[in-house]
Design goal:
Elements lengths: L30 H24 L8 H23 L2 H14 L14
Amino acid sequence: MSEYDQIQKSSLKIKGLGDLSAGKKKKKKNKESKHRLEQVVTSQNEEEEEVKSKKAYIDKRTPAQVAFDKMQEKRQMERILKKASKTHKHRVEDFNRHLDNLTEHYDIPKVSWTK
């Protein structure tokens, strides 16, 4: 029985139940730490603004690359305008006309589960 002499014989204590528990007290937050955090954030923002103002973006692309990018943007705008010119109804009609022109080889065969 010497092995069982060290067992706790009282009821279990559960944290957070007020009178029954001897729970830990919450630490009060330090006002100084908040103030320091605010200073660090503001200093970081100021440093970022200074870096942005000091380093102006220098375009290192060749004239051919610049022309290529301009043409890409121009073609993309043309595609957007072309798609925006048709309504959904017109697109559906065009698609149906296209499907009518296809041969029956491409049709999906009907599947009947009852036969």
